Amino acid sequence: MRSGRATTRGALQRATGLSRATVGQRLDRLFRAGWLREATGTPAPVASPLGGRPAARLEFDDAHAVVLAADLETRHARTALLTLTGEVLAEHTGALRVDEGPRVVLDELGARFGALLREGGSPASAVCGIGLAVPGPVDSETGRVVQPPIMPGWDDFDIRGRLRRAFAARTGGSARVPVLVDNDANLMAYGEQRAAHPDCAAFVLVKVSTGIGAGVVVDGAVYRGIDGGAGDIGHVRLPGGPGDADALCKCGAHGCLAAVASGRALAGRLAAAGVPAASGWDVRRLLAAGHPEAVRLAREAGRRVGEVLATVVTLLNPGVLMIAGDLAGTPFLTGVRELLYQRALPRSTAHLQIVTSTLGERAGLVGAGALVVEHLYAPERAEARLAALGF
């Protein structure tokens, strides 16, 4: 029903092969749970293939629950209250330093969630799940970050448990609400692919902000690797350029892509030249103002990232390569294209679209919300959830 493959009782019978009585029984449970409803307004009811009265059109009821989502950056956080179809009901962006540690950060997110629920007019009992995007590698089975270079104190921390307790303490909601955690680039890629490129079977998003990471969506699912480390291209060692070998990365190694071409790296170079800059956000501000040295450095950073992406594109052969984050403007994109088309085989780029974000700063939030909904309403979980709800 959510995918639109079947929107009437008859279509459900044909799609599932189930009898009319079985379909009717299962629909009754879904209606009582509030998960489905009869559609109103346009389009018109579907004509019955057997003649007679048109069949009533059914649809997923996105008003029966809401989702909370948060997208952590190194120096700020975005939070949102979303419908089950991704519509933003309330939103907030504010300073929050990830290096303050998980307890401080997650407790603050709980407080911000409470404010969002009040603003959106939704009770805490309506929240069916929480999605969280973090700037580090995540083991999706445990929801814990694994040796994150730019998240001190977060390694192997019980994020799910702490965020549940913070949510319950600040909103009066359930301390058992499902919490899903994933890497920010993964969730941005998931949100963008679903929103703007749903037919793309191989989609890559590269986020260039304080650090550099990539999210990969293959056949509609995020590819994470065996323990969440897929897409961590910021720690690919560059072959060497002026000063590259001496650039110290947050991971402790020298010459990593993030140490040379990230927003933090550019901010450091600008500061050394006497230009006030301390983060990727500051570089973004300077680029928006057309600052000549920031523009030059961004284009050069794009070239360095393009060197690595030539290998990524050759390996994955994606249909869409999306550049997102603080540096995702014309200078950086120009640099990426220069090196990518120069280094990659023509066959790898013949059908490649290189684009920028369509969802902008909401991409991680939309992806986090979609992750929660797809998890909770997956076929293998729907039966157990209905039973737990008493239907």
Secondary-structure topology with pairs:
Elements: H1 9-16, H2 20-33, E1 36-38, E2 58-60, E3 66-72, E4 76-82, E5 88-95, H3 102-120, E6 127-134, E7 138-139, E8 144-145, H4 159-171, E9 179-183, H5 184-196, E10 202-208, E11 212-218, E12 221-222, H6 257-261, H7 263-272, H8 280-288, H9 292-316, E13 320-324, H10 330-343, H11 346-349, E14 353-356, H12 363-376, H13 379-388
Parallel strand pairs: 3-6, 6-9, 10-13, 13-14
Antiparallel strand pairs: 1-2, 3-4, 4-5, 7-8, 10-11, 11-12
Helix pairs in contact: 3-4, 5-12, 7-8, 9-10
Report a brief summary of the structure.
The protein has 391 residues and is α/β, with parallel strands linked by helices. Helix content is 40%, strand content 18%.
If you had to describe this structure to a student in words, what would you say it looks like?
The structure is a single chain. The protein contains 13 helices and 14 strands. It folds into three domains: 52 residues, no CATH class; 146 residues, ATPase, nucleotide binding domain (Nucleotidyltransferase, domain 5, 2-Layer Sandwich); 161 residues, ATPase, nucleotide binding domain (Nucleotidyltransferase, domain 5, 2-Layer Sandwich). With 391 residues, the chain is an alpha/beta fold. It starts with 8 loop residues before the first helix and ends with a helix. The longest helix is centred in the last third of the chain and has 25 residues. The protein is 40% helix and 18% strand. The strands form four sheets. The protein has a five-stranded mixed sheet, sandwiched between helices. Strands 12-11-10-13-14 form a five-stranded mixed sheet.
